[in-house]
Each structure stands twice: as C-alpha cells, then as structure tokens.
Amino acid sequence: MSKSIQNRTFTGASKYVLDDELAKIVNISMALEMPLLLKGEPGTGKTMLAHAIAEALQMRLIVLNVKSSMKLIDALYQYDTLTRLNDSRFGDSKRDVSNIEEYIRMGKIGQAFVSDERVVLLIDEIDKADTDFQDDMLDVLDQMQFDIIEIDKTIKAKHRPVIIITSNAKKDLSDPFLGRCNFHHIAFPEPDMMRKIVSVHFPDIDKELLDSAVRTFYRLREIKGVEKKPATRELINWIRALRSDPDFRVKDLIKGEVPYLGVLFKKSPDYVVAQNAVSRFRV
Q1: Quick check: is 83 in a domain?
Q2: What's the DSSP call for residue 39?
Q3: What is the pTM of this model?
C-alpha cells in the first residue's frame, strides 16, 4: 500500500456531515486495518458513509448487499458452469472450454481482493445473514485470502480494503464477529445536526423554511403508532417537493398544513395514522 494512501484521513464529503466521534472511529479503523461495524436505525447514514469515504479519498466503492439466502461463496466467486456447458455444446465461443479459470467470476469480496487499487468495501445489512456466513466472512477478511477449489488456486488480496459493515440491528451478531470489528452506533441526528445536513443539500434554503420543515419533521416522527418513521432521506425529498411546488407557502406549514405526506410515510397504515395525526396539527 502506498504511503500517500495509508496516510489519508477522512474528514467528510460534499454531501455528508460528519461529527468528530464518527470521524475518529473511521480513521482509526483505517489505520488499524480493521472492519468498522455501523449500527443504527434505517436512514441514519450508515450506507452513505461508505459512499462518502470513497468520494473523499477518491477510492472505488464495491458494495455487497447481503441477502438472507446468500452463501459466502457467492460473495467470493462464482463458477459459471452453465456458460461452460453452452460453450462446450455449441463451440462458438472464444473461451477455452478446458480452462475452468475462464469461467470463474469474482463476487464482490473477490473483486475487492483482486483490485489493483485499494477500494472501499461496503458490506450492507450483515444482520440479514446467518451466523455461519458472518463468522466465515470475517475469517476471510482476517486472512485476506480465499481458495477457489475448482482450480486449486488461492486468491490473496493485493490491497487490504477499507471495510465498512452495516447492521440495522434486527438480530444480534455473534460475539466472535463483534470482537473482530470496531463499532460505532450512529444515532438519529438531533435537530441542530439535521439543520446542518439539510443545509448541505440545500445551501440556499430559506431559514424560515428550514426551521419550519425540520420542526414539523420531528413532530411527525413523534406520532405514536407509526411503524416506519421518516428518516433523513425522506426529509430531504420532502423539502425538495416543497421547494418544487409553486403554490407552497411556509406560513401554511407553520399553521399545521403538511403537504406530501406520501413522501414521508411509505406504508399505507403509517400514512393513515399520520394523516389523522396531522389533522390535529392545524391551528
């Protein structure tokens, strides 16, 4: 790894507002070459952090979206037996059918390992996977190598990736898994931090609109009976909708009129609960 890359520090990105504690744990994880496990409710910016690190440090981002049915080998490599079978049957391919290596396709972790440049590897929603997947994956990431059994070949990482792992905390992760990661819980932003986040996305936003929108947003998040509270991305899209409506007036929002609830609440039961609650907002 080149010294210039090794010594880079992350201080934020063009659309990502970073607090000091998170900046420190990101940078110490890169220095120690340890995976950083991020927990927090959906919409707190866990996934976007990996995008921001890649942007700020000018590194390629590789994303492994974990599924409940995923096997570790799928994240490492795939042996494309179907294509090889078709090539052997029809004989019109430029590939050498006798060379199995031509039919090996790297999965997301494999791509990160064989990359000529150091990359950011985002392993998104690890809590969807079973415990065996989690622990076996950490073994591979510890050793920075894995075997392709079909060709009896060991793939060793050219560069150790910057590894960001996210979890929505829907189920507990194993103790061995937790022991091999640094950890940070991203709490939902307080109103003052949210104003900073919104201002990054809308540098020219009117202060009255900013204050009224953020105040209303947090009031909506407090509605009882809502399963999926609106998150930061919904607030950003909602403000975009308000600014795009030529008939919208901030004074209506101050009076308790809340347009475009469907931008904030995506589930029908939540929408109905919010609609009923908003009717009591009006002054």
Answers
A1: yes
A2: E
A3: 0.84
